[in-house]
Amino acid sequence: MDKYINVPLSDEDAGALRAGDYVYLSGTVYTARDAAHKRMQEAIAAKQELPFSMEHNVIYYMGPSPAKEGQAIGSAGPTTASRMDRYAPALLDLGLKGMIGKGKRSQEVIDAIVRNKAVYFAAVGGAGALLSKCIISAEVIAYDDLGTEAIRKLTVKDFPAIVVIDSEGHNLYETAIKDYKK
User: Which of these, 50, 49, 4, 9, lies nearest to 28 by C-alpha position?
Assistant: First the structure.
């Protein structure tokens, strides 16, 4: 079922999503990859403020290519989410409501998703040029020295994703395999 969702994610919207739903996200999404996650983890350990509030927000695991003239951003495809698994539970516990990436997540992340009634979305890998067309604006807000791994605030319009793990822990990667074997 196709759903059009505004981000940041409300508790109600996150709770209504089910593994397998096709969603189109509009609003604000933040980007962060390995190096940015490591810095955020260090900030948490040092009891410092994070570059943005996790509360109800969505992080897209993406490192964009440079924007061409007239574009908000270059190719903007997802990166492998499992690389952020060591950091994700702490961010979820701080109120992060959604993550966008590709690939499977660890049991620790799945448990944190359920505990915090969050959601994990997949974006189609290899479609970065098409996904970039859904990004209206992009602004570096933290860790500029990290280049493509800097944290960016994106404004997105009808950004396509699939709910892979919903707030109840249903996991499309597991159910799809079982359905396929039938």
Answer: 9
Using CA atoms, how far residue 6 sits from 13, 42, 46, 173, in Å, is: 9, 30, 33, 25
Distance between CA 74 and CA 107 in Å, rounded?
33
- 51-101: pLDDT as tens digits: 999 999 999 999 777 788 888 888 898 999 999 999 999 999 999 999 999
pTM for this prediction = 0.94
| pLDDT tens track for 16-48 | 999 999 999 999 999 999 999 999 999 999 999
The label of the residue with tokens 């290519």 reads 65
Going from the C-alpha of 85 to that of each of 25, 92, 109, 149, the distances in angstroms are 23, 11, 6, 17
Is-contact 18 170, C-beta < 8 A? yes
Mention every residue, 6+ apart, whose C-beta is less than 8 A from residue 39. Answer: 143, 146
**Total length of the chain:** 182
Given the DSSP bridges, would you call strands 2-7 and 151-165 parallel, antiparallel or unpaired? unpaired
Return the sign of the alpha-carbon dihedral for residues 162, 61, 82, 113.
Answer: negative
Distance CA 39, CA 32 (A): 10
